[in-house]
């Protein structure tokens, strides 16, 4: 049988199921990663499972999201993660070592292996030919404990790249073009596999920019072949022994196919407030910029920042622009420092931030009120930057750098003529911010600061689910809406009771109070509920508030799994118009739940309006068992 790259890796890791599209498969996971904002909860859950050591080939705990340390909370969290890591056999990447996906690409990713990460941009390592998937913290905890990871066998989209990028056009523009075509929900249950002549002209970091932002398509993951370019990258990282050639067989079957001619691509921009709101830069006229932010796991590689340094070399940024740059890793920052790139950035007027997520997760550098911020990041949801009235445009490093000079969103093509950036002869390798796990963990004590609170667990499914509609929300509600993650809240990621006062408050400030007063209830939502990050807190906090079910027009993939893992029933309207027939505070009831849970269709009664609606419960048998038990941890006997 002729196989695609993704199918080859899936086949090698299949524990249950087959390569039949749409069927449930269980995968053996080789590597895991966590970051600090999801990590504390993932490790609390891992501890609750009760194994002595991780069973993966390699697991890494990164600290990259919250490094402001405005109080002891997140410093305490970091120490908890560090001690858990040491004890259980996990590498610990200290604050300052870089963004999890950038560092994982540089130092840990291995072609042909599976990677499960408690961060939605885990597919970044697909640029190396890994099958890299973002998941909730509990799924990652189970994988660390040796359990398989279940997904629906995705449909595979062939993205054929022909031609070669013109000057001023970059890998970011390729993924923006895919987002323009598929939109933020178009990738659901799909893997985007890149192939064709054009692939050969893209370095691994460029490929990683594309697979990284595949997350915005809602895709299961994105992947490139592992070829001579991959070998070259690994060699420059001193890891050529980990290379394995993985290319699709000639004549392999793809479920869909699109072609992007790189010769015809122009610099693109995703306009506010969605990553799929994509137009060519040349169509935007006279948009004045207040802030330019360069970095994030999408565009903070050595090559990206060297391009920026060369564009800015000898020039000064516009007096009306604030330019902030966060290098993706210590390796990137160190190399820029050694080869003079850093000096060019500083001389031009850039503010250099530490290697981490920084402004991408709203940790500082919020734009001015009503400001225009140009960012090389992957998300521009309203308010994510910390200023609710700001407008964020997503662009390539080239567009960002040139626009920082002109003060307006500018097509970089004519500014690029003398700019030539090549891969270095060798990356600067210094892993002294990575702490190795202890050989034996028995004697290691885990240090838990006062901010580490127990996580909430659901109860077994009862005979009836009933409750008031506590909130009705529109389409495309993100995990940022459900559980905001601004600088004020990020230190409390291991403190669910504290976070509960902020749940869904961007939609309705009274929601937490109403939920508590009513002893929990039901949420009603539009399409694509829970899009965005893998943030499990967007399920854990509703569990704490007593949410029993969410009835939506549709759900985002990772969030739906997180709800099921934590015992919240995700139901979909059979007739989407029924959304309009339910009002806030209507009393809903699902009777005979223990019988209905076994069915694909469920009837909910609206006792306030004396009406009934048909709902769809589109889940697997294993997920039904999980909901009956009240969540995955209950199934594990905890
Ligand atoms: Fe960090 Fe932003 Fe990437 Fe998330 S999307 S891992 S916050 S840089």
From TrEMBL:
Database matches in Pfam families: Aconitase, Aconitase_C
Key word Lipoprotein present: no
Co-factor(s): [4Fe-4S] cluster
Gene3D superfamilies: Aconitase, domain 3, Aconitase, domain 4
Domain Aconitase A/isopropylmalate dehydratase small subunit swivel: 514-575
Keywords, ordered alphabetically: Iron, Iron-sulfur, Lyase, Metal-binding
Gene Ontology molecular function: aconitate hydratase activity
Enzyme class of the recorded protein, top EC level: lyase
EC number: 4.2.1.3
Family (UniProt): Belongs to the aconitase/IPM isomerase family.
PANTHER family: ACONITATE HYDRATASE B, ACONITATE HYDRATASE, MITOCHONDRIAL
Protein name from the UniProt record: Aconitate hydratase
Source organism: Tissierella carlieri
Lineage: Bacteria, Bacillati, Bacillota, Tissierellia, Tissierellales
